[in-house]
Automatic annotation (TrEMBL), chains A, B:
Pfam families: MarR_2. The keyword Oxidoreductase does not apply. It comes from the Bacteria. Residues 1-125 form the HTH marR-type domain. PANTHER family: MARR FAMILY REGULATORY PROTEIN, TRANSCRIPTIONAL REGULATOR, MARR FAMILY. Signal peptide: none annotated. It comes from Paenarthrobacter aromaticivorans. InterPro entries: HTH_MarR-typ (IPR000835), MarR/SlyA-like (IPR039422), Tscrpt_reg_MarR-type_CS (IPR023187). Keywords: DNA-binding, Transcription, Transcription regulation. This is MarR family transcriptional regulator.
DNA sequence: CCAAGCTATATGACACGTCATTGAATGACA
DNA sequence: TGTCATTCAATGACGTGTCATATAGCTTGG
């Protein structure tokens, strides 16, 4: 039974999807073009950049993004390969790692964040 | 320069991401578990189901979802393999195809739509 | 202090989406 | 009508995400 309430829900959902994909797509393409990193890479970079504590963070990153633990691990692989972050072993728990921006990483993050914020503003109104 | 406006934007964006992924994820897992189709498959099924005209529709589907043309093509592959839709050649333009639900497709769509709507209501409030 | 279980991260197999390209059909225009 | 550009859909190569599992280190109860 297709109620009008159902139709409303579906319309609402499609509009969410649409604006989500448009925004994410625009940011992703812009970052890719100008800084050669994808949106997920940037978002991890952004999380690392805003972490002030020296805590062990691979774990805590996982809690602050919808990405899977293994997705985070692979994104960090790429960031590390690109020389933007480095994994530091953690003295008090040797299973854990924490991440540090390299100088290159910090520099790139600063420019990319400007772009990111601008596109958010443009797309979220 | 990180303004508080920037922080607001970022918070807003993360909250959108979060609710988008939670909703999409919940629906996807439920449909996968109960009907053995993913969210994208369902959404194409849903679009086909609500198309009344007998127009050639592969094309028009592409305009009603954020999916790529090639993504749509592959989703339809899977739906066809699963016996839920069939591709019909189009007399007035032989490049085009239109899609039809099979009986199985219609039946599955009816049950799955109930679940889909329920989860939307639950997640979109 | 050892065994059993738990936690943090990495990895391999696999599924799916994207981009670029192809093939086929159509349209447009000299 | 013959050429050239355009449009619709399919496909292959490739990147990245997920799930299940592996590995290593920590923890706890006997």
């Amino acid at each position: 039974m297709a109620t009008t309430r159902d139709r409303q829900l579906v319309e609402q959902w499609r509009s969410i999807q649409d604006s989500y994909f448009r925004t994410a797509g625009a940011i992703d393409r812009a970052l890719e073009a100008k800084f050669d990193i994808g949106l997920n890479e940037f978002e991890i970079l952004d999380l690392v950049a805003e972490s002030t504590d020296a805590a062990c963070r691979m774990k805590s990153l996982g809690e602050r993004t919808p990405m899977t633990q293994s997705a985070v691990s692979k994104v960090v692989d790429r960031l590390e390969k690109a020389g933007l972050v480095s994994r530091q072993t953690c003295a008090d728990d040797r299973r854990s790692l924490f991440l540090e921006l390299t100088d290159a990483g910090r520099a790139l993050h600063e420019s990319a964040a400007v772009e990111h914020r601008a596109l958010l503003k443009e797309n979220l109104g």
